[in-house]
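Sat 14:20. Reprocessing the chain from the morning session after the first attempt stalled halfway. Input below, unchanged.
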Amino acid sequence: MLAHLAAAWVMAGLIWVIQVVHYPLFDRVAPDRFVDFEAEHARRITLVLAGPMPLQLVLALWLAASPPGGVGRGLVLVNLAAVGLALVVTAAVSAPLHGVLGRGFDPAAHRRLVATNLVRTAAWTAAAASATAIAASALAVPAG
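Finished this time. Tokens:
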């Protein structure tokens, strides 16, 4: 449960940095350097996400299958839904847009990436908040 909490907050923090700092700066990269920039972004962000993203999913599934004492089923399902939404948008929207950008800067694809990333930002924020509520509920149960 605490590993899930940590992974959830890592993902929330990362997505906020991506949303507020990183993606908005894509249009500041020189056009002749953008393809290399996008390739390096993909390589580096994969290194950062390779641990916490799958860990969060596996632990969200585990918590949904076996909620800790004192934690309502609805709360773990909300958490799982938030994680799932973030991952579906990543696979179905963000990754294909990065594919477009990997061929060269495309202003429309960039605008769509920034706009649709708001869904991932909201989902990973909700996942972190619900992970916090799960941990707080579980830790509030007296040992027995």
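Residues 2-139 form one domain.
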